[in-house]
Every structure is written in structure tokens, then in C-alpha cells.
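User: Reviewer 2 asked us to show a designed sequence for the structure in our supplementary figure. I'm pasting the C-alpha cells here. Could you produce the per-position amino acids so we can include them in the response letter?
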């Protein structure tokens, strides 16, 4: 399962949803979905790249793979 680290990264960097929407040129719904949903099923790589660039991190930092026990 892929889980989102976006909420934690945003909190650490002090970035609001509105700021990230403007910086990454991504819709509010997209940011909210990625940020609030623990399980992420699908997201375009281009979108992840824009979000990561806006936050000053790598795409791989946005998500974490949890292995099933």
C-alpha cells in the first residue's frame, strides 16, 4: 500500500493548502485528496513532480510504501 507523507511535509515546511495550490499549480481537490487520504491509488507523475518542486523535496519523499504483514 502506498501512503501519503504530504500532510507531514506541509506541516514541517509551514505550507498551507492554498499556498501549495498556487506554488504547484495543482487543484485544491488534488492537494486535499493526496493530503487527507492515507491510501493513494493513482496520481500523475507530472503532478507529483510539481508538488515536490514546490515543497523543495523529491517525489519519493511524498509517499511511502507500507508492506503488508
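Assistant: Here is a per-position design you can include in the supplement:
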Amino acid at each position: 500500500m502506498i501512503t501519503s507523507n504530504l500532510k507531514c511535509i506541509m506541516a514541517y515546511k509551514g505550507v498551507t493548502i492554498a499556498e501549495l495550490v498556487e506554488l504547484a499549480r495543482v487543484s485544491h481537490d488534488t492537494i486535499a485528496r493526496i493530503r487527507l487520504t492515507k491510501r493513494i491509488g493513482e496520481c500523475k507523475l507530472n503532478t507529483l513532480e510539481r508538488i515536490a518542486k514546490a515543497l523543495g523535496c523529491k517525489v519519493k519523499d511524498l509517499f511511502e510504501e507500507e508492506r503488508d504483514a
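For the response letter, you might also mention the following. The beta strands are 2-4, 63-65. The domain at 2-65 is CATH 1.10.260.40 (434 Repressor (Amino-terminal Domain)).
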